[in-house]
Amino acid sequence: MTNRDMPKHIAIVMDGNGRWAERRGLNRLNGHKEGIDAARRVVEACIKKGIDTLSLFAFSSENWRRPPSEVQFLMTLLVTSINSERASLFENGVRVSVIGDREPFSIDLKEAIRNIENKTRECDRMHLVLAVNYGGKWEIARAAKLIAEQVVDGSLLPEEINEGFFDEFMQLSPDSSPDLFIRAGGEHRLSNYYLWQMAYTELYFVDCLWPDFHENHLTDAITSYSNRQRRFGGLLGDDGVLC
Ligand code: IPE
Ligand code: IPE
Ligand code: MG
Description:
Blueprint: E1 9-13, H1 17-22, H2 28-49, E2 53-60, H3 68-91, E3 94-99, H4 107-119, E4 126-134, H5 136-152, H6 163-167, E5 180-183, E6 202-205, H7 215-226
Parallel strand pairs: 1-2, 1-5, 2-4, 3-4, 5-6
Helix pairs in contact: 2-3, 3-4
The structure holds 3-methylbut-3-enyl trihydrogen diphosphate (2 copies) and magnesium ion.
């Protein structure tokens, strides 16, 4: 008995832009530009397939370690892409949320994020979660700090802290952990994406570099997902239902 269902939430690490460009004798930055087209394609494909939530990892907490010129280019590309995609995402019924630490962003980027979140707030066809300056470790440490503050001010007892309580302090709503994780670019690692939320996520890795990622890769990943058994530590009965 396999899972058969479609994943409700797909999370993607869009990796391989730099290598895509270098293999063509181009500057890495060309790969990032091309990666925007792949992101648009995957958003459209997910809408078509009826996916509830799509999460895209756009910039990690660790990506600041890159040369300043690449970081600057990525930040500017984010501003222009968020602004230029806003109208069509709205028309397609996509609610956009951005997760991660916004504190170091430019005024332009903060404003672009605020505008797209406000404009698409009521959209309900699909939820697109962009992770920008996001890291799973950052998110967990942030939750621990917020919880500790409640203990210090006397509104919370340490024995009241449990997994469900922790969930409330994470960036995604508690019931929306990814069902399927896809990483393009050939690396087999999480690179600090959704560490808390991916405890039972199905993992899928594909060699194709992100700018070459098309709907067929997404379809293959979903087919692989549908053929798996998810047991969450339990057992499946003869009827295929968790018992
Ligand atoms: C992913 O592509 C985009 C970001 C991390 C922002 P990379 O830039 O990591 O491309 P590779 O892995 O070096 O090819
Ligand atoms: C992961 O890719 C982050 C994003 C795609 C935004 P990286 O290229 O930063 O990951 P590592 O360094 O290969 O682990
Ligand atoms: Mg990379």
